[in-house]
Amino acid sequence: MSGGKSAARVLACAAAWTIFGAPQAHGQEGEGGGPARASSKAPAPIHRTADGRPDFSGLYAHGAGGANYGLERHEKTPLIPGGAGVVVDPPDGKLPMQPWARAEVESRGKPERGYDDPTAHCFPAGVPRELYVPQPIQIQQPPGYVLFLFERMSWRTVPLDGRSHIPDAIRLWQGDSVGRWEGDTLVIDTANFNGKTWLNQNGEMVSHAEHVVERLTPVDGDTIMYEATVTDPIVYTRPFTIRFPLRRQAGELLEVACHEDDVDLEHLKAIKDAAIAAGSVQR
Amino acid sequence: MSGMRTLGYPAAMAVTVALLAETAVGAHHSFAAEFDETRPIKVTGKVIEMKWSNPHAWIYVDVAGDDGKTVKWGFETGGVNALYRRGWRKDDLPVGTVVVIDGWRARNGTSTANAFSITFPDGRRLFAGTSAPKADEK
Chain A closest CA to B59's CA: distance in Å? Predict the structure, then answer.
């Protein structure tokens, strides 16, 4: 196959992808999935399971824009996608960080701190970040559970049987989730976090005191409105809430073997080591 | 794929600019930390290897320097899943293909960079799937 023909095929496929399933807006982060299923038709009716609950089963892409680079509104730069902001409470769209936390976030935003982002080391992104990293999300609903499968090869299980959280001493990257239905809204309560996750590449933070309540409400058969209220009195002066849609996509989950050929971590470590040697950052 | 192949060049070209306006796809780390947006780079080189791997694909090219010596450059692209969903396949850049790649240099000073777009000698341009929403405007 000649280079020319290859290029033509790439362009043609790209054209098809754009025609059949363009992203929502320029400047928004790639959402990871394939073509949207129904872009110009009337909204699909809400799918339901045999017991009458909304059936969210399917592949989704987030509509959180550049939230993985900052939950607040931020301008795009050559290497940082912009974001309109997903914080809906407080009403000003600002994260209600304690002053020390704001200073830490500013530090984490420096190149020499890029090495410290746990996802750069292929750790799970945590909650709610798993919902707005740039890969699709598979939701499954076997009886008694809702399962989230993330393309970065992590998952969350949400039992719906009314059980309590696991003992407080057990701390997890993804936390411990329990769910319940409030009408058509799936409410997920998640605790037992290890406090090691970052909320995004900008370094916005949570601690081991993080507690998240997520609400997934069907808008139509292809759209879920996702909302997460984060409470963390160590880092924040008050709870905050983010909101964005999850949109059903065609296609299927693929694999991301994150350690396969990860040369980025080596680069990021060299940048941090140089900063340590220069005394501008601590080990 | 076969249905998509029937689309002609005009349709493909019409959407290329839109694709170029897209942003990071698949990054598990900060591009802004690893690469320097104040140091854009543009090279013409011959493809040595298209490394189709996670968490990012890499395109390696031989670039002739001003001193006549050949330097091997590595350009990071988006994640392979994102490239796959955009229609890329791992044999789309055969060894020996001459390309112009533009992007941003790594902060560590090595011959590596974050790719934004790939241009063929006839002017056709591909989106590399990394970042840079405004790169097509520069």
Answer: 13
Q: Which of A15-19, A68-72, A113-117, A145-149 has the lowest mean pLDDT?
A: A15-19
User: Residue A261 and residue B80: Cα distance in Å, rounded?
Assistant: 11
CATH number for the domain that contains residue B66: 2.40.50.140
**Whose CA is closest to A130, among A39, A267, A242, A46?**
A242
Q: Is B85 inside any structural domain?
A: yes
Sequential DSSP letters for B30-42: -HHHHEEEEEEEE
Kindly list the domain boundaries of chain A, sorted by start residue.
3-30+44-277
Number of domains in chain B: 1
Q: What is the pLDDT of residue B12?
A: 35
**Beta pairing partners, A187:** A180, A215
Q: How confident is the model at residue A194 (pLDDT cuts 50, 70, 90)?
A: very high
Q: Do the domain assignments include residue B13?
A: no
* pLDDT digits 0-9 by tens, A46-82: 999 999 999 999 999 999 999 999 999 999 988 888 9
What pLDDT is attached to residue B78?
Answer: 86
Tokens found for residue A198: 């970052």
Q: Is the model's pLDDT at A251 over the cut of 50?
A: yes
- Domain residues for the domain of B84 are 31-131
Does residue A4 carry a pLDDT above 60? no
Dig out the tokens for B26 from the structure: 């698949």
Residue B24 maps to a domain: no
- Is residue B8 included in any domain, yes or no? no
Looking only at the bridges linking them, the beta strands covering A240-249 and A58-62 are antiparallel
Query: Residues 95-134, chain B: which have Cβ within 8 Å of A?
Result: 96-97, 104, 106-108, 110, 112, 114, 120, 122, 124, 126-127, 129, 131-134
Mean pLDDT of chain A: 87
Residue in the block written with tokens 């190149």: A111
